[in-house]
Write a structure and sequence with these properties.
Blueprint (H helix, E strand, L loop, with lengths): L6 H5 L9 H13 L5 H14 L3 H14 L5 H10 L3 H13 L1 H4 L3 H4 L3 H11 L1
Helix pairs in contact: 2-3, 3-4, 4-6, 5-6, 6-9
């Protein structure tokens, strides 16, 4: 990008508009130090960013954090996110969590809003 006649070369600036500032800063912090601050607060957004920029170690770190955060209220949402971002560890953990708490979760609107594919995967895990 900086070795061609692109706009970024001429202006000496790169605009990344679809990543929040704090998420971008933590992505850079991870690239340079292997550490992330406030992972508990930004794990979902950072997972998507790590997936987009092919940062597999950061992605795994976010998956681990989100596995810790699984609860009745967010398990369907996290399952959808994991499926969308091909985060298999997180997806499997979310499915196991839902199966383990099926009596509470299956009647929630968040669960009923899941795609047929994901509901099928949860049902398959139940048998």
């Amino acid at each position: 990008m900086f070795q061609s006649q692109m706009k970024e070369t001429q202006e000496n600036k790169v605009f990344i508009e679809d990543i929040e500032h704090d998420v971008f800063v933590e992505m850079l912090r991870f690239i340079y130090s292997g550490k992330v601050r406030h992972l508990d607060r930004i794990a979902k957004k950072l997972l998507a960013t790590a997936d987009r920029y092919l940062l597999e170690n950061l992605k795994k770190l976010c998956e681990i954090e989100l596995c810790k955060q699984l609860c009745v209220e967010n398990a369907p949402e996290i399952l959808e996110l994991a499926d969308k971002l091909r985060a298999e560890t997180l997806k499997n953990s979310a499915i196991k969590y839902i199966v383990g708490n099926k009596k509470i979760i299956v009647d929630r609107p968040e669960f009923r809003a899941l795609t047929h594919k994901l509901i099928y995967e949860v049902c398959k895990a139940m048998v």
